[in-house]
Amino acid sequence: MQTIDLATTPLRDVNAALQAQASRTNQTEWVIENPKGAHAIAVGLDAPIEVTVKGSTGYYCAGMNKQATVKVTGSAGPGVAENMMSGTVVIEGDASQYAGATGHGGLLVIKGNASSRCGISMKGIDIVVFGNIGHMSAFMAQSGNLVVLGDAGDALGDSLYEARLFVRGAVKSLGSDCIEKEMRPEHVEILRDLLERAGADAKPEEFKRYGSARKLYNFHVDHAGAY
Amino acid sequence: MDKTPQTLPRDSWTFSPGINAEIRRAADTGIYDIRGGGAKRRVPHFDDLLFLGASISRYPLEGYREKCDTSVVLGTRFAKKPIELKIPITIAGMSFGALSGPAKEALGRGATLAGTSTTTGDGGMTNEERGHSEKLVYQYLPSRYGMNPDDLRRADAIEIVVGQGAKPGGGGMLLGQKITERVAGMRNLPIGIDQRSACRHPDWTGPDDLEIKILELREITNWEKPIYIKVGGARPYYDTALAVKAGADVVVLDGMQGGTAATQDVFIENVGQPTLACIRPAVKALQDLGMHRKVQLVVSGGIRTGADVAKALALGADAVAIGTAALIALGENDPKWDEDYAALGTTADAYDDWHEGRDPAGITTQDPELMKRFDPVEGARRLRNYLAVMTLECQTIARACGKSHVHNLEPEDLCALSLEAAAMAGVPLAGTNWIPGQNGF
Question: Which end of chain B is flanked by fewer CB atoms within 10 Å, N or C?
Fold first, then answer.
């Protein structure tokens, strides 16, 4: 196991070391100590390594991640795992705004709460939040799955495309063109798999599914009030 | 027979035939007019400036004999690998989706032949474009369609798009007709829907966040790539200053004549400032921060000739970018397609319904049959020629002003033909020493 102390090692050196790991590296376990809210920790990784950040991170931790597993033992600042392509990111604490924004793939697990705009413009990523999520989450979400064990704030799924939203608790309000949809067997299976992979203690049957009504897909003046 | 003189029919200036036609169109369809291109209204522009040329106090350089350098380096502030261009004219961002694949290929080929860069657009980077572009700028847009770290790393520079001149504060729109299987796949969207591009970035707001976003992009790309920030011509002084503060290597400033693939006509014609009005405030911001020539300024929006290039450089820009002009060079709006334009209810040079995907020239379309009309190799040759002509024109003017590098052109080489242009460009009205707006007058 490799340990890097961010208190004494420049961020550039930390990221360069992690980014240099090839897909067949033997050095698969890394620990980063003293993050102290630093930004852009463990960004742009592209190897099947496991990085544990001991503490809380600033903006964009694990941004554009591929293959790697990044665990944050504290909380994460805005844009954690933004534009993630693959791999897994796990936040033990809470996540700030834009968690998983525009993510194309991989799994983001937030064991606390997530703030506003969680999963904004998501493009294939799977996000599981054990707590609640803030307003405007999954805004313009294109594909992937957002699973919320707690409650969702205002305007969930506004202007949604084809992403699936699963919420166990209350939804304060739905955004434009987002509706509750039937939970069919295939959705139960997708949800069961995600809950299991995230280690979440919840049953798929407890959730409701939300998705796009697809009324805003092609502009029509009669829908202008919804925009 | 009544011989009483009759009042001749008199059109209203306010309710002109064009305005009335638009009212009728709106009443009929219930939707605003969407079109491509930039502002078509007459605004003060480079045409309203003249070069003074050499005289007793300044001597010229010999045309065709004495060297007049046109090279430019972009991204010298922080990037390990700045972009070196042979000419100060770049190709602006235009998306695959808005343009056909062969059109993007032609832009890459033509720019490469001319020794300059081209730029991706909303919708991501295609292999054809990367392969044919020696220097490719990868746009980082609010939609993040197709965004991925591999393309970031194989780009030569990254352009964070905050806005564009045709629609500062507006997002994009690609109507369903152009969302083919390939375009939809690259953007992760269903085929045939109207694709909206967000107007602001999903994971940062404001200059402090932007500074951190730039840090992230630099960390992902090993601090190699120049990072441009593109803004529309809204508040050029403050936007430039904030872009510098956020850590930009290059500021790209796009005035209201800058084109778009598609947006509302009301937006194009009524939001943003003319290119001419934007340059001096942006340059002043750089000068006030001690960053002029350290953070490079690229100006776009209505650049058509070598004279326009020279004037933009004289006002303080390091380079210019062309979009609409490049498409015209490729063959867009060519009169040889007059019959087809007529069938669409328009004419060559006026055609701007690029969003409909029915472009007779086969450039702003995804229709396989129309695309066959466009030859990317021939298009590249035409673009290369056009860029060469503009460069020669710019050099001709620079030599006449006694400059051994086009960057040595300066505001003192210019005068203005109108009060408005004099005030915007900060140069004297021709025949006077009056710069409106300066020294309390």
Answer: N
Q: What is the ipTM of this complex?
A: 0.96
**CATH code of B255's domain:** 3.20.20.70
Nearest chain B residue (CA) to A102: B144
For residue B57, what are the domain limits? 51-331+374-425
Q: Tell me whether B78 touches chain A (CB under 8 Å).
A: no
Q: Which long-range contacts (CB under 8 A, 24 or more apart) does A116-125 make?
A: A116/A153, A117/B202, A118/A146, A119/A144, A119/A146, A119/A163, A120/B202, A120/B203, A121/B143, A121/B144, A121/B198, A121/B202, A122/A146, A122/A163, A123/B144, A123/B188, A124/B188, A125/A81, A125/A84, A125/A100
Tens of pLDDT, residues B202-220: 999 999 999 999 999 999 9
Contacts of A102 in chain B (CB under 8 A): 144, 147, 202-203
Determine the residue among A121, A158, A214 to mutate to test chain B binding: the one whose Cβ has the most chain B Cβ atoms within 10 Å: A121
Q: Is residue B43 part of a domain?
A: no
In chain B, which residues have their Cβ closer than 8 Å to the Cβ of A117? 202
Cβ contact, residue pair A82, B203, below 8 Å: yes
The tally of domains found in chain B comes to 1
The 8-class DSSP code of residue A189 comes to H
Query: In this structure, are residues B366 and B357 in contact, taking their beta carbons and an 8 Å threshold?
Result: yes
Mutate to test the interface with A, among B78, B140, B209, B216 (most CBs of A within 10 A): B216
pTM recorded for the entire structure: 0.96
> Which stretches of chain B score pLDDT less than 70?
1, 173, 177
Answer yes or no: is B380 within a domain.
yes
Q: Which domains does chain A have, with CATH numbers?
A: 2-226 (2.160.20.60)
Within 10 A of B237 (CB to CB), how many other CB atoms are there? 16
| B188 at interface of A, judged by CB pairs closer than 8 A | yes
